[in-house]
Each structure stands twice: as C-alpha cells, then as structure tokens.
Hints:
The complex is a heterodimer. Chain A has 23 helices and two strands. Chain A has helices spanning 3-23, 28-47, 50-54, 78-104, 110-128, 133-151, 157-189, 206-219, 231-234, 240-267, 269-275, 279-298, 302-323, 326-357, 368-371, 373-387, 394-407, 411-428, 430-437, 441-448, 452-459, 467-485, 487-499, and strands spanning 60-67, 70-75. In chain A, strands 1-2 form a two-stranded antiparallel ribbon. In chain A, helix 14 (326-357) packs antiparallel against helix 16 (373-387). The radius of gyration of chain A is 22 Å and the shape is globular. Chain B is an all-alpha fold. The longest helix of chain B has 32 residues, at 328-359. The two termini of chain B are 30 Å apart. The A-B interface holds A 64, 66-67, 70, 72, 134, 137-138, 141, 152, 155, 160, 167, 171-172, 175-177, 179-180, 183-184, 186-187 and B 389, 391-393, 397-398, 401, 404-405, 408-409, 416-417, 420-421, 423-424, 427, 431, 439, 470-473, 477.
Amino acid sequence: MSPTTLAVLGIAIPLAGALGIALCARRPNLREAVSLTTATAMAFSVAALFPAVLDGARPELQLLEMLPGLSLTLIVEPLGLMFAMIASGLWIVTTVYAIGYMRGNGESHQTRFYVCFAVALAATCGIAFAGNLLTLFLFYEALTLATYPLVTHKGNDEAKAGGRVYLGVLLGTSIGILLVAIVATWSIAGTITFRDGGILAGKASPFAASVLFALYMFGIGKAALMPFHRWLPAAMVAPTPVSALLHAVAVVKAGVFAVLKITIYVFGVDFLGDTGAGDFVMWVAAFTLLAASVVALHKDNLKARLAYSTVSQLAYVVLGATLATAMGVMGGSLQIAMHAVGKITLFFCAGAIYTAAHKTEVSSLDGLGRVMPFTFTAFLIASLSIIGLPPLGGAWSKWYLMVGAADAGQTLMIGVLMLSSLLNVAYLLPIPARGFFRPLPDAAADAAAPGYEVSAIQVSRIREAPLACVVPLCLTALGCLAMFFYGDAVFALLAPVIEASTLSARLTP
Amino acid sequence: MIDAHLPVLQVAVPLILAPACVLFRNGRAAWLVALLGSAWTLVCAGLLLAHVVQSGPWDYAIGGWPPPWGIALRIDTVNSFVLLLVATIATVVIAYAPRSVAAEIDAPQHTLFYSAYLLCLAGLSGIAATGDAFNLFVFLEISSLSSYAMIAMGQDRRALTASFQYLVMGTIGATFILIGVGLLYMMTGTLNMADLAARIPAVGETTTVRAAFAFLTVGISLKIALLPLHLWLPNAYAYAPSIVTAFLAATATKVAVYVLLRFFFTVFGASFSFTSMNLDIVLLPFSLVAIVAASLVAIFQSNVKRMLAYSSVAQIGYMTLGISLFNLTGLTATIVHLFNHALMKGALFLALGCVVYRLSSANIAQFAGLGRRMPWTMAAFVAGGLSLIGVPLTAGFISKWLLILAALENGWWPVAVLIVAASLLAVIYIWRVVEPAYFKPMPAQAVRSEAPLSLLLPTWALVAANVYFGLDTSLTADIAGLAASDLMGAPR
C-alpha cells in the first residue's frame, strides 16, 4: 500500500472500528474483540509507515480545499509518526487493560465508552498527520469533543462539573486564542502549511512573533500551561483507562505535540532562537514545571497527584520548544515518547489499585506493595523513568533537555530541571515506599491482637487486580526499560526534524 | 420567449399565485400552489445567477417602459445571489410546511397562510430584483404586511402582541425609508437607482441628502434588527409558527441587509457613505455591541426559539461588522455570512420545528433526553449549532474565517479577538441545549418519537447544505467575492 493510503487508514480504521463497536453493542465479547482488532490494525497501519519515513519520505495528501490555500491536508513527518505510533501502540495495551478495568468495576455504558475511545484515537491520528494548522485545529477540536463523554462517564454531578471545566477550558482556549493565532499566521505568512524551517521567518517582526508564539502556547490548552491547566485535574473524574491513555498520552501529548509542531514547522527553531520570541513562554513553562510539582506534593488523591505530575511533565516539552535549540527540541520530542510510556504505567497502576483494593488516596496505600507486588514494582520502575534515572527511557529526554538548555546558555533552566527532578523524587517515590515498607493497617492492628499469625498469613497473600489489568502495566513498565536501550531508534527517526536547524552540528559527530 | 422575461417572472409568478391560493378552500391544494410558486422562483433564480455570472448585469424594463418612465429591474451578482438564497430557503421551507402548518395553525387559516407566504416571497424577491428605490419600498411593504399576518397566526396568544409590536416598529422603519427615498427624489428628480447613483454626487454635500442618508440608515437598520433597533425580533420569532420563524429568520433580515448594501454602495456610492458620512464608524460600535450583548442575552433564555432569535441579532452584528470593516474581504464576509447564516438558522429553526411538532414546546426544560427520543432531529440541531459556532468543515467557519481575516487586514486585533470570543458565547448557548438532550435521562413515560420524514428531509437538506458550503465554497465565497468587488466598484 502507498504511504498516503496508510496515513488515511490510520484515521479511517478507528472510525470504522467505532462503527463496528456500536453495531456490536449487545454482544460484549464480540464488541471487545472488535475493539482489540481495530487497535491492532491501526497500530500496524501506522507502523508500516515507519520504514518509508525513516528513508526520508514525506507522504502528502490533500483531502479537500475549502478556500484557495485553505485545505485539509495530511503530511506524515517523523515527529507526527512517532506520536501516532506511541498512541496507537499504547491503545492496544490500554484496550486490554480497559476490558479488565471496566468489567472488574462493573461500569455502565461500556459501548459508548469504547466508541468514544476509538473516535478519540482517530482524532489523535489526525492531529499527528496534520499537514497544516487548520487540519490540526479541526482534529484537535474533534479530540476534545470525543473525549467529553469519556470524562463525564460516571454521569454524577462531580463528573458533570469536571466535564464542564474540561470542555470550557479546552474549547475556550482553542477557539478564543488558538484560532486567532492561526488566522493571524495566515494573515502574516499567507499560508498555514507546515514547512521545514517555518513559514513565519522573515515575515513577522520579533514583537509580532513573540505575541503570536504566546498566543499559540496558551491557545493550545491541551499542553496545560499554567494558568490553563485546570482541565487536567478536572478530567481525573474519568475512568482510569481514560486517564491513562487520553490524559497521559493522547490528549495531553496532542497538546505538546502541537506545541513542537508549531515551533518547528511554523516558527522554525532558528527564527525562534534569533528573535527570542519564546523567552516569555519559557519562564511560564519553568514556573508551571515547578509549581505543578509542588502542588503534586500536596495531593493525597493518587490520580490528582499524577495529574499534576503530568502538568509538570508537559511543561518540560514546552520548555524544550522554547529553548529554541536543536537539542532542546529533541529533548522535548523524546519527552513525548518517554513520558507517555511512563505515565500510562502509573495510571494503570492507580487503576489496578482501585480495582483490587478500592483505594484512591496515597495515605491509604500502606503495605499494599506486598499484596500487589507486580503493580507496585511497575509503579516504581515507571516513577524512576519519570524522574529520569538510567537505565530507563526518561533519562534520555531529561538528558537532551539539559543539553539544550546548556546550548541556549540558559544556566538557570538547568537548575530548574534539576530542582524539578528532586521534586519528582519527592512526590513519586513515597508511593511505592509506603507500599513496600509500611505495614498494612489491618496487620498492624492484628499484631496487637492475639492470633495475629493467622491474619499475617492471610494478608501476605497476593491479591492483584484481574490479569487483564496487571499484564498491560507490566508490559508498559518493561517498555520504560526498553525505551532506554532503543532510544537511538527514536532519535534516528527524529533527527531529520531538527537537521534544518543550524544548531544541529552536534548531531553528526 | 420566457427566457427574456426571467427577472419579472421571478417576482410576478408568486405574486399572481398568492391570490390564487385563497380561491381554494382546501389547505392541501393551496400548499401545492405555494410549492409550485416557490419551486418556480428557485428555477428562475438559478437561471438568473448563471446568466449574470456569465454575461454581466441584466437590465429589464417592466412592460417595455424604459426608465425613468417605467419600473426597471436590475439583476447583478449581488442580488441574483440573494434571490437564489431566498428562493432556496422558500422551497425547502414550503416542502417542510404541510405537517408543521397542520399542527400549529388552525385549519381555516391554512389557505390564507399559504397566500401570505407567497406574497412574502414575492415581496422579498421584488426587493432584491428591483432597480427602483420607490418600488423597493412597495415590495418591502408587501413582504412586511404578509409577515405580520403570518406571525399573528402563532398559537400562543402573545403572537398577536408580538405581531403588533413588529407592525409598529416595522412601519416606523418603512416610513423612514420612504422619507429617505422622498428626500432623494426631491433633490434628484428620479427614483431609478442607477440614475440616483449618477446624480447624487452633484448634490451630495447638501443637508437634504445627508438627512435622506440618515433616514435610510435608521429605517433599514430597523428592518435588519441591528441592535438597539432589534426589539421587535425576539418576540416575533418566539411566538410565530415554527415554519414562519424559519422562513423569516433565513430570508427577511438577509434581504434587509441586501437593501443596506444596495443603498450604501450602489445608490450613495462607497465613497460618499464611508468617506463623507463615516458609515464605518457609525456601524462599528453597534455591530460589536450587537455581537457581544445579544450573544450574552441568548445564554440566559429558557425558550430555545427566543435564544436563537437573540443569536440572530448577534449574527446580524457580524454582517454589519463586515460592512464597517470597509475592505473587500470584509464585504465578501458579509455577503457569505448572509448566505451561510440563512442556511444555519434555517436548519436550526426547522429542527426546532420538529421538536415543537412532537412536544408542542420549545422550552429548554423539554430537551432532557431528547437525543434519544428524537435522535435525527437533535443531530440536525447539533450540526446546525456547530455551523453557528463556526467549527471547521461547516459553512459557519468560512464566514468567520473571512471576517477575522478582514479584521486583521485592517490591523484591528481587538475586533478579531472579539469575534472569536463571541463564538465562545455561541458554544455556551448551544451547549445549554445539547447537554440536557444528550446527558440527561428521558422523562419516565417518554418513548422514542422521531419527527416524521416529511419534516426531517427538508431539515437535513439544509444541514447538508451547511456541510457542503463548508467544504466547497465555489458558489458562496467566489460569487460573494465577485459581488463584493462589484459593490466596491473595483474593476472585474
């Protein structure tokens, strides 16, 4: 099949899958089979693009043209392909996990859940392959709308309130700010197509570029730059598989992916660096990075803590983009992949703990590590990857971000990154530490009572979540490890993206 | 043979068929006559547009009496576009009519309703087609009087007061227009628009012409319901029968916007209107206030018809904003939005008509669980709502895009921001309907009760048009661009 067909299939397969899932509403087993098949087929069709793109092909397809120059266009380039591969690959794992989680918790409206999930993935793939700002905007909005029913899945007042914040912030920023930035770009550059080296270079004054860049960064609400981050914690009312795939991978990464894409293909790294247009946003990102970590420290609810951790980790990508150096951009791009695998594992673990032990607060996790050893080991591994310790994937992104900051001469940013890593340690590691080193509250109570040996034997028995929940989280935890050793493959794929930049001399030793 | 008389037949056929309706005692037969009349105008309008785009403006002297003795019709790109819009909406709405009319209007009045409908269609077509300023006033009165009658046919007793309110305000507006035309006649001795355009520059600096300009501006603004002259509109739309609301919302105010364009650009000329009368500065604040204030008011309505009526006031602000930006893109945006807004409001009001047909109410409280009770109707409503918001792939996006672009061309950043901010307000008021429809449970005893196909098909025809004109803009944006450059007097 030709690469353009594959790119279209990446969007069409999940859409067709959504239809199939809806048709199988009355037969849950068949419905889940359709879900899994769709996920696998999508992952394969996206992965099949890899060799061609690695060879330098840039498949391009114009779907339709609305006004002259204003069209729906797909272009497959390395960054987008990486994003699509991550999202579609993790969708398979998440589907398995979701089956275990949704059945384990006896959730209602499961058909709607799987349908919306598939549509959300189609939108994500559309964002990944968007060839111009309008196409990006369109799929970006589609993703917001498709995920709304997932966020409000529980249907209670809390879910509805969360859903309102979610929709309000995401639609508000995108229509109110992002759209203005897109029209302004069209007005200044005369085009909105993503091009190597950017389309604004030489056309926008440094001041206009600064304003425009800030509009983009705040307009992309999915990147959760403060003060537009509130939707992400609000979205945590969703069932955990949604938080895992959408709010650790697809939706938030769609945001930072758009940030990188706009930095590289609309502004151009060199233009951004020369004009200093990103400076203001860089400070905002640094603030978000630290502030969100501090907030995470204070959150006792596990999912809320992970949500603020995500806010913080997303700011890494924005920071990487605003450093406006080849290495910074590379670090930001790698962060998309590395953080995705790490954070999805953490959310899987949170969901598994909820399914098996019905615990949601960090303070109530004492001793659970011995009851759920696989889950907590996976949590530990993923935490270390998020912190950025070798031999885990997260190490690479942190490494290149630091190199990027050094290249840009932003010594202070190196300090911010180091401080943030310490904060990561402080809010992530206590969780597995509690699980493994503190005694179970029941056991502690029983120890005082006579006949404690019996209960000690009982509590030491392993009570993990259903297998469909545990296997995916072990797989993704192993993925964190694998990403360290196969980091160079991702690097090789992404290298052409930043080759256009003059600062990429370091790339070819 | 017929070919040579298309311009007059466009207007005359519905005008002659209107009294024919009354001759039938049977509402069904009258409907058939109205359907034929509307379909005829659609055919005519299509042929006229094709002719005008190919070979330029078409001057037609009624009865063979050349102006200034006889009445002249003049069809160019601008009004053939408006004619096509009016005829399309009229045809779609009349196809929708029988069941909705049967449900909402008393049986003895059916023939009268169809008669009034054809009269209104004839009046609106006449306004668009004529090249004579006084004749325009006559047609304006024909369309207004018939619409007062149609609004008064609403089931709610408040329809009568709404109609009366509209009658008073509308008559004031029409009188102002008449005074304006009279003053112009006094100064120039002609009523023919082309002659007026030629003679006004010589007397442009007189107080009389300025007064005429002022009278016309206020009079027409009343007719287009530009804030703060919009007070008649919400009640009239809310209490009229659904089908009348759909027809008037999609055509009457649009034709009035056309009248505005015609007088300001053709009769007075762009340079007089904008340079010496500063029309742009006059219109801009009212447009912006209309966009924001009416959208805000729409958010707090509990009747969906009324909500959409306020939304119409806001959307009219977009159209006048395009004029006040005074550049080619802005004018194109106005003309495109005139067309697109007719499509989206037509679709929304027809969908609402389906709801009223089943529930006899358009109150927001009735919408709980409607997504499951009337899935196709609600889907149409959502699609129309998306277009109203201006989501890409819908017609509404094209208008918004052009309008924002026009604002940026002038370097008016705050205006561009305001336009998108108002879109957000549209998100809120549409969402207020969508949320209960899809995320609230149905009332206990409710069952799935989709509207009949004869209502759904016309509704979905307009929804499809909303999507189609969001994808392919060769009819809308290209022709509107041509029309705008004609109006601005730029060489083709």
